[in-house]
Amino acid sequence: MIKILFNKNGIIAIHKPAGVLVHVFAHQKNEKGETVVQWALKKFPKIKNIGDDPEFRPGIVHRLDRDTSGVMLLARTQEAFVYLKSLFQRQEIRKTYYAIVHGIPKEKKGIISYPIGIKRGTTKRTIHPQKTGSGDSKKTLKREKEAVTEYEVIKIIEKDGEKFSLLKVQPKTGRTHQIRIHLNAIHTPVIGDKLYGGKKNASLADRHMLHCASLEFKLPDGTGVAIEEPILKDFDKIAHIL
Q: Ranges for the Pseudouridine synthase RsuA/RluA-like domain (predicted)?
């Protein structure tokens, strides 16, 4: 269930549950279940005119993947939309996620800085194979963009001879699927990730185990705010049964 965490200065912060779409794309017209946009239009009808594409995604400043849970921001006014968008563009919103991954990163703390683009002939995002020393270095990506992700190992879990890690992750850029792609690139895919993690890894959880725990930024008057949503029960359950 979507719930409001913050509502001030035209800025709304919500908790988005796993399994909820932010908005429907053309290929998802037959999807069932209320989206974030549909919820927002019911709760705040005037939001219908807000944003750079209000007919498609009114009030939406950024997105979380369907199966990613946690804190998400919306704008109730055009002024708030422009302000939040500028914060994201200038990388002035501190984003903290938690992820449960298969394996243990080589370094306890690290920075992943592989550019992300779209693999030619597909719609799937990836990093250039040359960046990891695998694949054909002649291959190129469409719309390749800089992407930077910091991570820290919080806990190591061992189960039936296999190792897993709970990571604190802070993306410095906001590319689509960035955290999932970057963690897979260092051979620690997010468990439950059906797109990037492989079949065995995907079967370990009902959804990919990625949660946005906090967003920190300054309001227009300069006041700092930290909006937090603790790790959810399914995260805690997975961490204990692995």
A: 11-185
Active site residue 160: no
Largest CA distance in the chain: 54
Residues 185 and 113 sit within 8 Å (Cβ to Cβ): no
Contact 57, 22 (CB under 8 A): yes
- pTM across the whole model: 0.90
User: Is residue 232 predicted with pLDDT exceeding 80?
Assistant: no
C-alpha to C-alpha distance for 106 and 210, rounded to whole angstroms: 20
- pLDDT tens track for 2-33: 999 999 999 999 999 999 999 876 555 666 77
Q: How far is CA 37 from CA 50, 80, 96, 148, 211, in A?
A: 11, 17, 23, 28, 20
Count Cβ atoms below 10 Å from residue 18 Cβ, excluding itself. Answer: 22
Angle formed at CA 150 by CA 236 and CA 115, multiple of 5 degrees: 120
Question: All domains of the chain, ordered by start, with CATH?
Answer: 3-113+148-241 (3.30.2350.10)
Looking at residue 33, what is its pLDDT?
79
Q: Which of 52, 65, 136, 206 is catalytic?
A: 65
